[in-house]
Amino acid sequence: MIANEVFLNQPRQFWAYVRSISQAVGYTVRGQGQIKVPSIEEMAGALTTLGLDAARLQGADGVPTQLGRTLGAYFAYRADALNTLVQPRLMAAGKARELFTQLKRQLNYSGPVPMNKQKGAKKAPAYFTALLNMLICSNTEGLACDYDPRVLTTVTVDRVPVRTLARRVDGAFPKAVNPIAVWEIKEYYYTTTFGSRVADGVYETLLDGMELEELRVSEGVNVLHYLMVDGRYTWWDCGRPYLCRILDMLHMGYVDEVLFGSEIVERIPALVKQWVALESARRAAAV
Fold this sequence. Notes:
4-stranded mixed sheet, 10 helices
């Protein structure tokens, strides 16, 4: 999923409203399993409850201002995108296993398959990560790719490091030094609650996005940044508020695209072709 351009260039203050209102009114409709779309009255009431000024959302006559209308449109968009596009693409372990088996056969993939960190009966291939690796590998046209960087991402100029990110990413093309693209994978099939470790994964991606934004603004270097998410029970049944925060992060410009579950089959081949074209152009320019 890419960002909706209508909301992509909103000022930071807009996102302060989004976060403040969301925390006060809640992210979901209780008992219905759907994402909440607050009314203008609920938005104004939320700000008032927090001791914040709600006057900029609607006039004395109750008519929403431009800000109020834009907030309402974003909340409606966010709910529709998650309810109708994201929800059906998130997979449980069984569905991910079926897709993994099907694509492994279809792509005739014989490379290494990463395993999850579970024990006993739950120990199995890390299906989502393996699917990503297979799809990427099948479209790199022979170029290198680091599917498990064990070093920090670094951008250099004349072999001198100008930025090194605080965290290791889950994948980099073509490598973790001067990458064209980096990605994070949040695959949770066997969790029974939405724990702090899962929540931390969202904020880790936000940190990476902030560092990459600073790199782009200060040094003019653009590294494409992706988030890959799967695990229906964890993310939809338990973690819908965090899916909302992921969409907010996408529209704040901290990730270039978020891929949810089976969406990777549709999008990864096209994305990798873009990466290959950018890397080929970079090599040609260096000659």
